Amino acid sequence: KQEVTQIPAALSVPEGENLVLNCSFTDSAIYNLQWFRQDPGKGLTSLLLIQSSQREQTSGRLNASLDKSSGRSTLYIAASQPGDSATYLCAVEGSNYQLIWGAGTKLIIKP
Amino acid sequence: SAVISQKPSRDICQRGTSLTIQCQVDSQVTMMFWYRQQPGQSLTLIATANQGSEATYESGFVIDKFPISRPNLTFSTLTVSNMSPEDSSIYLCSVVVTGVSKQFFGPGTRLTVL
Predict the structure, then answer these.
(1) Which residue of chain A has the CA closest to B105?
(2) Do residue B104 and residue A89 have CB atoms under 8 angstroms apart?
(3) Three-state SS across chain A?
(4) A99–B107: do the CB atoms touch at under 8 Å?
(5) What is the per-residue pLDDT for B88?
(6) Among A2, A33, A38, the residue to mutate for chain B (most B Cβ within 10 A)
(7) Does residue B45 contact residue B58 with C-beta atoms inside 8 Å?
(8) What pLDDT shows up at residue B65?
(9) In this structure, what is the dihedral angle of CA atoms A70, A72, A78, A81, given to the nearest 10 degrees?
(10) CA Rg, chain B, in Å?
């Protein structure tokens, strides 16, 4: 059974710092891995999707990597801003589009 | 992409009552799902909403408690029946758009059961 773990559970850093969020999964047989952002009172926003055949994806200040063999993904946020404060969730997709979710990392960027 | 709306956005309900949550998508989608996010927890898949047939439920979820309808390709409802405080959660629908591999999520329905 696939299990997804995110470390750390919470992170608070000053504005401007670069930071890394970690996601690990137990079963390497995945179709893709997605990183989402969840803001309080709002829905989920898909940030990056990495197909199982890819190693990384980039969007603006965000870079996500995937190492299937070791069951790990990282989300790198460059030059963090207070607007980046949110909960970041990773999810792996198995069969039939079903997503298995990590518990999330709550990120606070201090001005 | 897809624009997904959910109604209601939030509700406060009494124990023992039922609430039906609607999910509407602006385009035809391949698949629709319902998730639950309990306070402080991550998302858990409740079921896959199948068009014109019974939903496919995950372990721990049953049709009597969470009846689901999907009468067409763009609309689905989830009912939370005979509610208890343990049902207080955010309920989200998600869709897979035809030809696009990633899922899109609705804004969620925040349910509080007293």
Answers:
(1) A44
(2) no
(3) CCCEEEECCEEEEECCCCEEEEEEECCCCCCEEEEEEECCCCCEEEEEEEECCCCEEEECCEEEEEECCCCEEEEEECCCCHHHCEEEEEEEECHHHCEEECCCEEEEEEC
(4) no
(5) 96
(6) A38
(7) yes
(8) 97
(9) -160
(10) 13
